[in-house]
């Protein structure tokens, strides 16, 4: 028993097909952009208006016939943009809201939250406002909410777009533990680094067909080439500049120059990449202070 797709036919597939994702397995779904991976996930989770015929079965139960509460306990989906999945001010309140809605009694909620926090290693972000979290921290928070619902099937749609490698490995380890505990974990991604040690199967969606593959398709290979950077005119210069967000110091820059062209700001999730960027360029959505001398 697992996740069975029977006689599935829809505009994203070239012909009707059957396919089974087995239980107790971590599967990586690959395919070129526009091949229909996100649409397939949304169809499985019943969160799309995409027309289809056939059956989506989880352990023999047809997903489309389940109540909403029963459905979210069968299949959970993590979207590319985590901002679409929060209702409350912080993760703690979001977990309470989620657990209440799926029928947990008040006396059970605290122990369940403690279990989820330990499993997802998210204690540091539990009470922080969602809008203060980095992209990677939001993805971890969304994953914690999925853990709270404890679905049979986990669908993760390119979950690592905003996540540093350290957090990526941490989440891959968590997902592998879920699969070993009997869950069905299916993740789609374009960056296929680091998966070899964690996945059990790799499935390709190509030309409207699903098939298991045993090596990375050629279109997913990334070529890295060195490039000499030509000198560019100065864009702006910072001297003895500090940045704060609320009462939290973000950075202290003794002397730095940005040059015209494309620059990349790197840092682990939660160190302040996004708010620092907002302070540099005076984005109104970032409430903070930039002190020092900036010359442009």
TrEMBL record:
GO terms for cellular component: ATP-binding cassette (ABC) transporter complex. It is an enzyme of class 3 (hydrolase). Its EC number is 3.6.3.-. Keywords: ATP-binding, Cell membrane, Hydrolase, Membrane, Nucleotide-binding, Translocase, Transport. Pfam families: ABC_tran. One of its GO terms (molecular function) is ATPase-coupled transmembrane transporter activity. The keyword Ribosomal protein does not apply. It is found in: Cell membrane. Transmembrane segments: none annotated. PROSITE patterns: ABC_TRANSPORTER_1, ABC_TRANSPORTER_2. Residues 3-232 form the ABC transporter domain. Gene3D superfamilies: P-loop containing nucleotide triphosphate hydrolases. It is a peripheral membrane protein. Belongs to the ABC transporter superfamily. This is Cobalt or other cation ABC transporter ATP-binding protein. It comes from Streptococcus pneumoniae. The gene is nikO.
């Amino acid at each position: 028993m697992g996740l069975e797709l029977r006689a599935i036919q829809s505009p994203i597939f070239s012909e009707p097909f059957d396919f089974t994702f087995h239980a107790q397995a971590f599967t990586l779904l690959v395919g070129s952009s526009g091949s229909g991976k996100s649409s397939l996930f949304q169809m499985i989770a019943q969160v799309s208006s995409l027309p289809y015929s056939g059956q989506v079965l989880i352990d023999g139960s047809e997903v489309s016939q389940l109540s909403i509460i029963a459905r979210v306990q069968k299949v959970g989906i993590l979207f590319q943009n985590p901002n679409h999945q929060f209702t409350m001010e912080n993760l703690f309140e979001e977990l309470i809201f989620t657990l209440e809605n799926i029928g947990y009694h008040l006396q059970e909620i605290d122990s369940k939250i403690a279990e989820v926090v330990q499993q997802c290693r998210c204690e540091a972000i539990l009470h922080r406002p969602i809008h203060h979290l980095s992209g990677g921290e939001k993805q971890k928070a969304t994953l914690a909410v999925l853990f709270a619902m404890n679905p049979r099937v986990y669908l993760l749609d390119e979950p690592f777009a905003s996540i540093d490698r350290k957090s990526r490995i941490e989440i891959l380890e968590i997902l592998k533990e879920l699969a070993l505990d009997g869950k069905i974990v299916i993740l789609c991604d374009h960056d296929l680094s680091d998966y070899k040690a964690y996945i059990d199967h790799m499935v390709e969606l190509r030309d409207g067909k699903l098939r298991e593959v045993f090596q990375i398709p050629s279109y997913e290979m990334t070529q890295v080439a060195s490039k000499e950077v030509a000198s560019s005119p100065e864009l702006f210069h910072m001297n003895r500049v500090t940045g704060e967000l609320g009462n939290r110091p973000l950075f202290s820059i003794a002397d730095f120059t940005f040059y015209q062209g494309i620059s990349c700001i790197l840092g682990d999730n939660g160190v302040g990449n996004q708010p620092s960027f907002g302070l540099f360029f005076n984005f109104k959505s970032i409430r903070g202070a930039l002190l020092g001398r900036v010359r442009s």
